[in-house]
Amino acid sequence: xxxxxxxxxxxxxxxxxxxxxxxxxxxxxxxxxxxxxxxxxxxxxxxxxxxxxxxxxxxxxxxxxxxxxxxxxxxxxxxxxxxxxxxxxxxxxxxxxxxxxxxxxxxxxxxxxxxxxxxxxxxxxxxxxxxxxxxxxxxxxxxxxxxxxxxxxxxxxxxxxxxxxxxxxxxxxxxxxxxxxxxxxxxxxxxxxxxxxxxxxxxxxxxxxxxxxxxxxxxxxxxxxxxxxxxxxxxxxxxxxxxxxxxxxxxxxxx
Amino acid sequence: xxxxxxxxxxxxxxxxxxxxxxxxxxxxxxxxxxxxxxxxxxxxxxxxxxxxxxxxxxxxxxxxxxxxxxxxxxxxxxxxxxxxxxxxxxxxxxxxxxxxxxxxxxxxxxxxxxxxxxxxxxxxxxxxxxxxxxxxxxxxxxxxxxxxxxxxxxxxxxxxxxxxxxxxxxxxxxxxxxxxxxxxxxxxxxxxxxxxxxxxxxxxxxxxxxxxxxxxxxxxxxxxxxxxxxxxxxxxxxxxxxxxxxxxxxxxxxxxxxxxxxxxxxxxxxxxxxxxxxxxxxxxxxxxxxxxxxxxxxxxxxxxxxxxxxxxxxxxxxxxxxxxxxxxxxxxxxxxxxxxxxxxxxxxxxxxxxxxxxxxxxxxxxxxxxxxxxxxxxxxxxxxxxxxxxxxxxxxxxxxxxxxxxx
Lengths: 255, 407
What we know:
With about 260 residues, chain A is α/β, with parallel strands linked by helices.
């Protein structure tokens, strides 16, 4: 199985057990580099897919929590090479497939030639790049394809229908359906029109659909459950890790 | 069409291409949420900018509210001192004190046609913030300005002006707390309300179509200057010199001269304290290619692609990136870029003030420093200097630097 297919498989395995898949997001090396391995193992055990954030100086799609975590991780010396090395050597890393969330520039600096092999060697199954729209994604998608890695596509409530079909047709791993217009972390209301939008995405997507941005509570997860295959929990999990709470217990409380 | 890079009309007129590229630079690197908003903006630019209705209203505002055309001044004393023929394009005389108003008025007129309900803007030195606040007041639109906390402090007079003009000023404490952080925060605001908010970006940076839109609105500087040179000097300049931060006044001055093969173009970046990474804001002369805030361009970054903080005595040039068209013009060889240090700029500012009775902005003073250097190497040259703004806003920092030294 190509690495990218392990992502869809893990999400489908959850839905086949009758529950929405959980994608847990954590900023690499936050709240400390020393605890990254332990936290990763705990999150991996409680999630179906783990999304690891590569910190960046200009996280324009992120709200206050992930900005704070990014700046702290950078100040602590977290880099993409460190993340890949740590993932490669982590054992046990836990069962869930790992995807990296990174803004484009750290990936360009690493080098699109080198990146796919190093990521595959580190056990990374795919990438989410929030400042890389479909039209600009050709070079990275082609590079990742060489190692069978996914480039996860994001769609939003303001993505027009024709474009939605185009993005979903190119989707790999899962479609990341952003719940709202806004940055990460704000608590998302789940009005009927958001669920209707999730239904539209689900209808056209050949791969599983996960809803993300602002998901913090069991109630929200329950509302999305019948409409998508999974949910992404980011800022709320980062805050739990920041407080020193047990990430596994927090994630279990969501479903 | 001539496809060779060089000084021919066809070579430069075809940029940006359909994907917003200037050669390999430019493009549109934004979250998916903004793609539809940028598509609408681009459609609006294509539909309204060339329209007779827009052009008439824009021209009338520029003439009767901004005070255009701005003067072209022969700098008698500087000419004598430098052994050159020095002409100044006086954007410092434009309403609100800098070239920024040309872009702000144009974009807010466009925003109204696009049905926007509110204007957001970022600002570094405060000039684009003041220009946006003024234009929004004039055109009856609410306006929110994001400004780095460091800049709020060092450009205090402009913060008060924005408030008097009815804008809400939001200090940004994240990141570097200067222009770059202000742009990040404005983008976050726009992502939250892409349908009824209009983001009036202040420089020729960011995702397509902003670099193109800002250039088109600022090109009035170069068009006027070119005609005025022919009228008053009787010839085109040998060289046109402008300061470059994001690069809006420079692209506005340069663009109408790109096809004049006999006119050299010289952009002057902020050399800050010197050449070390973090000591300057010279993205073109010291940067490497990367993606920052929507555009593939030259940026100041470390080996891991993290964007570095910059230093310049001038808040308006204190930015880690630069407009993609400048990166392209440098690569093509059409425009030469150099840096001037803080000290060189402050020295040039003092000289201009004393010799010509004109107090330029510290940003603009970088162009004077570059022009003086050019004159030393090219005796007798006919030099056009873009005086992009006035220095009144810089009094707090001039008190601590130039005036302290001479006290």
